[in-house]
Design goal:
The protein is of the alpha+beta class. The chain has one domain: Cytochrome P450 (Cytochrome p450, Orthogonal Bundle), CATH 1.10.630. The protein has 14 helices and twelve strands. It has a five-stranded mixed β-sheet with strand order 1-2-8-5-3. A hairpin with a 2-residue loop joins strand 6 and strand 7. The longest helix has 32 residues. Bound molecules: protoporphyrin IX containing FE. The site of protoporphyrin IX containing FE has 28 residues, from helix 10 and helix 14.
Length: 414
Amino acid sequence: MSTTATARMIDLDPATIDLADIDVSQRELWAENKKWDFFTRLRNEAPIHYCPESEFGPYWSVTRYADIMEVENNWQMFSSDPAIVIQDPEEDFELPMFIAMDPPKHDEQRKTVQGVVAPMNLKNLEGTIRTRVQNILDSLPVGETFNWVDLVSIELTTQMLATLFDFPFEDRRKLTRWSDVATGGPETGIVETEEQRREELYECLTYFTRLWQERENQAGGNDLISMLAHGDSTRDMSPQEFLGNLVLLIVGGNDTTRNSITGGVLALNENPGEYAKLRNNPGVIPNMVSEIIRWVTPLAHMRRTATEDTELGGQQIKAGDKLVMWYVSGNRDERAIDRPNEFIIDRPRARQHLSFGFGIHRCMGNRLAEMQLRILWEEIQQRFHKVEVVGEPVRVPSNFVHGFTELPVRLHPI
Ligand code: HEM
């Protein structure tokens, strides 16, 4: 093994580094937004790439669009069990959840909660979302600099999540906190110790167990907790599995849409020509929403584990090997997407991106996320000539949640 295998990528030149030494999982690359050239190099020269040593152990990177699709479409060979993130599960704190299961259990549990985002339910939710968006936008401090992440992105997605769970509205920021705690350990600064993290997640479990107990004997609830409490495949879940699925639903519906909301504002500011296009043609909004979701790629990766020895892109994969499908890279693959490094709000086939994954685990909430973003941009355009970015964004130091903690902005009303 070469000498730089554990070196800090951020100090090295992506154009000249020995391919064998590339480790795209390092957090600094994500916090500083310096990963792009490493991914370009991998796509061009080593699309199925083995990293022998990293904070997360050895792993394969899958970086081209077509290869990611191949892995997604073969769940028998590339399993979601035991984890869908690069980090292995903690042995003494397992959180089973259906995104990290294979059929048949995955399919049964997904079916149980799928109704919450059925077309009829989405139609019913549209009015609620619009009113909430209007209230949030009308309460913003015009003329002042403020953090868009906190006052808009977090607030809107947290209100939405509270609705899906029928969660006590005044306590909704607890959901934001649990979402952050679930995805960030002590290394991110969100908690001080792993112990604190677990304690907070158990508080989440206790809170939701009370809601479950209130609802398990009432028929007909249309919220996620009632659905889990009444579903054949979920009503007898262990507390740990209940917590796991809660984490899935909280993170799934929260961090992702939150970061698309923030990333969209940033992308439009970085591309003034596109912002002008939006002003001249609000009809472009649905297409723009898909382009924003591709551009931001709110979840940078999903991981799979090989169930057998196999071959992928000419590389020999061994049973038990970890494969990381880097959606951030697939979404910038020029073999599949025309001018992928440009943000083009009216690009053709904008919905052909990897941000929602593919195959049996394809994002359950994709239509809901798109609807939220569409309504938000429709309402922003009614009020503001520009949401101006006036300072540097602060990024989440994570190779999984690809997003922002801060985006200072100023509003320019119409
Ligand atoms: C822009 C916003 C969103 C993005 C980028 C996103 C992304 C993803 C991705 C990448 C996956 C895994 C796909 C795969 O492995 O092939 C996923 C799964 C999932 N998402 Fe989303 N998501 C978003 C919004 C939401 C929302 C609003 C919900 C709320 C209902 C949600 C709920 C879920 C669930 C429950 C799964 C697990 C599906 C399964 O395993 O069958 N997501 N999402």
